[in-house]
Amino acid sequence: MKTLTALVSEFPSERTDPPDEWIKADKFRGNVKARLAQAVGVTQFGVNHVTLAPGNWSSLRHWHESEDEFVYVLDGELTLVDENGAHVLAAGSCAGFPAGAANAHHLQNRSDAPATFLVVGTRKVGRETVHYPDESLPPQNLTRDAMGRRVAVSGQ
Amino acid sequence: MKTLTALVSEFPSERTDPPDEWIKADKFRGNVKARLAQAVGVTQFGVNHVTLAPGNWSSLRHWHESEDEFVYVLDGELTLVDENGAHVLAAGSCAGFPAGAANAHHLQNRSDAPATFLVVGTRKVGRETVHYPDESLPPQNLTRDAMGRRVAVSGQ
Predict the structure, then answer these.
(1) Which of B37, B82, B96 sits opposite A70 (nearest CB)?
(2) ipTM
(3) What residues contact A54, with CB distance under 8 A and at least 6 apart?
(4) How far is the alpha carbon of B101 from chain A, nearest alpha carbon, in Å?
(5) What is the CATH class of B24-126?
């Protein structure tokens, strides 16, 4: 088979600006993501290379019932916010979020410079439930679309 | 639950020197590995932070039947060697090895400085078979021990 490699600096910049009506949309405008694992043919887990603009967040604070998540800070400084408070993560730091542990988490860029991390997440087949305790949202039941992306279970 | 974080620079240096009788043991002496995902409670995939001394290899050239593998170069320059030849990977490069693709691969440090990468691999429950086409080894049938590490199926 073909050799599957990619160089992050050659990825087209993929802005992940949400629609204006999304919850706290202003926290996500200007973030940039490269889907590395997908680019090199890996499907059992995802690896995204994400840059957060100053003031931005990685996601709404959340936890997963079924899929493990792991982050590794490449450049800059990020702040992990979880049920235990705020934890500064310098470059070279990692954090883990085991599936099923009700420790809702996200990363915030509280610095004045962009900050970049890798996030790894299992890509299980089938359903997943994600909890967002800070929002007026019930637990979100997700499935995977034909491209393998997580989407809401229809009829929810 | 507790917040699970780790800083790579504070990991105790874990030399992974093989026993002298291992195949090509001299290619692995002096490598250093930190098991990051394990350190922060993640079990569905492994994430190791590995530094190869000049001249060293990441592993024997191999491919997996069941588990995806992904590498991301953090520092220095590595050379991916697979069925298609040698491919230089600068920092910021990644490569993917989908399960079941018979493209045996490994990383070599052909530079004169240490080089560091992250390697992510699925940690499936149950058996796995790994192929080493350059060696006089049959396909290796592996299972997981109580610590979740891959070990030979006994009686092999």
Answers:
(1) B37
(2) 0.94
(3) A109, A111, A112, A113, A114
(4) 7
(5) mainly beta
